[in-house]
Amino acid sequence: MLGAKRFDPAAWFDRHGVPVIATILVAALATVVVKLLVRRFRRRLEGSPTATQELNLQRIATLTGALSTASVVVVWALAALVVLDRLNVSLGPLLASAGVAGVALGFGAQAIVRDTLAGFFILLENQFGVGDVLEVHTTAGPVSGKVEALTLRVTSLRAFDGTLHIVPNGNIQVVSNKSRGWARAIVDVRVAYGEDVERVRAVLEQLFEEIRADEVLSDWIRDGPSVLGIETLGEYAIVIRVIADTRPSKRWDTERVLRERIAGRLDAEGIRVPIKFHTNTSSD
Question: What is the pTM of this model?
Answer without folding.
Answer: 0.52
